Amino acid sequence: MLVKKIDAKLIVNSFDLIIKSQKVDFGEMLEARKIIECATARMAAINRTEEHIKKMFHILDLKIGSREEFIKINYEFHETVALASQNMVLFYILQALRELIFKSHTTTPVEKIEESVKQHRAIYEAIKGRNPDNAEKAMISDLDNFSIILLNEARQRVACGNAKGTKV
C-alpha cells in the first residue's frame, strides 16, 4: 500500500504527546535527531538529484542578514538534505523532531552563524560529490555545534533563573 501524504503535524503532535507523557530527556531527542540526520546525509549523498544539489546551492548562496533569517535558512537546508535522502519516513520523523527541538531553541549567537554556514558547505560538497562518509562526518560536526549552542543557552537560562531566585 502506498501512502500518498503524511501529515507532519500528526507526527509532531504524536511525538509531543509521547515526550511529555514519558518524560523523554531533551538530550535523547538531540541524540535521535543526530542518528537520523546522519543517516539522511549518507543517503542524500547516494540518492540526491541535480535538483536537490541546485536547491542546496541556492540556499547556501542566500545572504543572511539576521538570526531569524539564519534559523529559517538552516531549517530549509536540513529539510533539503532530508528530502535528498529520498526516504519520506525519515524526512517526516526529522521534521517532527526538529519542530519539537526548535520550540525550545530561541537564538543562535551571531558568531556561530558563519561556522554553521561553513559546515553546511561541507555537507553540500560531500553530498554533491556523492561521498556518504564525508556527508555523515560534516553532519556530525554541524549537529555537535548545534548541541553546544543549546547547552550554552540552557546554562544561561539556569543562571538567569538562579540570579532571579527562581527554582529551575
Alpha carbon gyration radius = 17 Å
Any guess at the CATH architecture? Up-down Bundle
CATH top level class name: Mainly Alpha
- Which term fits the overall shape? globular
Task: Compute the number of strand runs.
Answer: 0
Work out the count of structural domains: 1
- Give the CATH superfamily: GntR ligand-binding domain-like
Fill in the CATH topology: Four Helix Bundle (Hemerythrin (Met), subunit A)
* Broad structural category: mainly alpha
Strand content: under 5%
Task: Give the terminus-to-terminus CA distance.
Answer: 48 Å
Mean pLDDT: 84
Question: What does the main sheet amount to?
Answer: none
Order of helices and strands: HHHHHHH
Classify the helix fraction into a percent range: over 70%
- In DSSP terms (H or I, runs of 4 or more residues), the helix count works out at 7
Which stretches of 5+ consecutive residues score pLDDT under 50? none
Layout of strands and helices, then pairs:
Blueprint: H1 8-22, H2 26-47, H3 50-61, H4 67-84, H5 88-104, H6 110-128, H7 132-163
Helix pairs in contact: 1-5, 2-4, 2-5, 2-6, 2-7, 3-4, 3-6, 4-5, 4-6, 6-7
Description of the molecule:
By secondary structure, the chain is mainly α. It has one domain: Four Helix Bundle (Hemerythrin (Met), subunit A) (Up-down Bundle), CATH 1.20.120.530. The protein is 80% helix and 0% strand. It has seven helices and no strands. It has helices at residues 8-22, 26-47, 50-61, 67-84, 88-104, 110-128, 132-163. Helix 2 (26-47) runs antiparallel to helix 5 and helix 3 runs antiparallel to helix 6 (110-128).
